[in-house]
Amino acid sequence: MTVTKLAADKASLNLRIKGYDLDMINALRRFCLVEVPVLAIDDVVILENSSLMYDEVLAHRLGLIPIVTPHKYLEGGEDGVQVMLVLDARAGTVTRTIYSGELVSAEDREVKPASAEIPIAELAPGQSIKLEAYAKLGRGKVHAKWQATSKAVAKPTPVVTIKNASTAKREQLEGICPVHILASKDSKLVVTNPLECTYCMECEKLDPDSISIKESKDDYIFSLESVGSVDAEDILMAGVDIMMKDFKDLHSRVDVI
Amino acid sequence: MLVPVRCFSCGSVIGDKYEKFRDLVQGGMKEDEALDKLEIKRYCCRRMVLSNFNVMDQLIPYAESVYRLKLQQEED
C-alpha cells in the first residue's frame, strides 16, 4: 500500500493511492466532502438595508462566502460554535460595490472571508447596508455552504498501452485527444502523461488495433480542491480523523452488544 | 442581480473572478483565453462567468436618479 503526492498546494491536492479498495477511497472522499466542519454565515441580523437587493438575497449571498476556519475550530469545535462578523457600508456621492473584504470580525481576527474580492451588493449614492452576521460551524451534509471542498474525486489510474507505435493514424490520434497526452515523436506514437487521461475513449474508437485504454485495479488518483476555508491537506487529514473517530465509535457500540 | 458567489454545480467560488474576466475581455482578450488565465477549468464554472448578465447595472441608474431628485428637493 503506497500513497504518493502528485501535486499539492493550498487550494488543491492530488494523490495516487495504491493497494486500497474503491470502497475505502470512496468513504474517505465522502468524509472530506461532507463531514469536515467549517465556518459559514448562518444567521444574519439586518439593521439597515436601503440597497436594491432584498434582505433574503443579501443573506443568501453572505452564506455562500467561504470563511477562513482556523485550526482550533477544526480540532475541538462542536457544531453550532459561532463567531460574529460585521458589515457596515455606505455609499457617498458615487455608486460603489461592496466586497467581502469589508466583512470583519471583532471577536476573532483570524475569522475572515477566504477571498476579499467577492461582490456582495452594489450601493447607489445615499444607500447603506449595516448588518451582523453569525458564522457557525457546520457540515456539508446539512447545507452545501458548509462544504470544505468544491471537488473530491477518485478515478482509477489509466493504463494507456500502445500496441502499434508506427500506426498510420498517428497524426489523427494526436489531434483527437482532448487532454493532449498523445504525441508523435520520430514517427512513433508516444504517451506523454497517461495520468491525465479522462477515459473519453476517442483514440481507441479511432484506432482500436494500435492503442488501448484500461482502468487499473486498486490504484486510484484522488484529487481534492479546497473552497478556501481550510487548506486542501488539512481537509484530507480532518477527513481521515473524523472517519477514524466514527469507526471507533461504531466499534465501541458493537463491543457493548 | 449580481454575479453568483459560487458555481451552481460544483460550488467553487467564482464571484471574485467575474470582474477580472470582464476587464480582460474588455481589454481585447478572447473569452476562452481569459477563462484559462483565471484558472477556471471545469465547464460548469466557465459557463457561470461566461454567461453572466449583470441586471444590477440596469437597476442602479433608477436609484441614482432618486438620489439626484432628493438633492434637488433639498436645494429647493
Number of helices of chain B: 4
* Mean pLDDT score of chain A: 91
| Main sheet specs of chain A | 4 strands, antiparallel
Beta-strand residue percentage of chain B: under 5%
Total number of distinct structural domains of chain B: 1
Concise structural overview:
Chain A is α+β, with helices and mostly antiparallel strands. The model of chain A has no long low-confidence stretch (mean pLDDT 91).
Structure report:
The complex is a heterodimer of chains A (257) and B (76). With 257 residues, chain A is of the alpha+beta class. Chain A folds into two domains: 2-35 and 150-222, Gyrase A, domain 2 (2-Layer Sandwich); 38-146, DNA-directed RNA polymerase, insert domain (RNA Polymerase Alpha Subunit, Chain A, domain 2), CATH 2.170.120.12. Chain A is built from six helices and eleven strands. Chain A has helices at 22-34, 55-64, 71-76, 170-176, 202-206, 232-256; strands spanning 2-8, 12-18, 38-49, 82-90, 96-99, 119-123, 128-138, 149-162, 182-185, 188-191, 211-226. In chain A, the strands form four sheets. Chain A has a four-stranded antiparallel sheet. In chain A, strands 3-7-4 form a three-stranded antiparallel sheet. In chain A, strand 9 and strand 10 form a beta hairpin. Chain A is flat and about 70 Å long. Chain A starts with a strand and ends with a helix. Chain B has one domain (18-75): Arc Repressor Mutant, subunit A. Chain B is an all-alpha fold. The mean pLDDT of chain B is 93. Chain B is 58% helix and 0% strand. The chains are: A alpha+beta (257), B mainly alpha (76). The A-B interface holds A 52-53, 57, 61, 64-66, 95, 100, 114-122, 124-127, 144, 147, 150-151, 225, 227-228 and B 1-3, 5-7, 10-13, 15-16, 18-19, 42, 56, 59-60, 63-64, 66-67, 70.
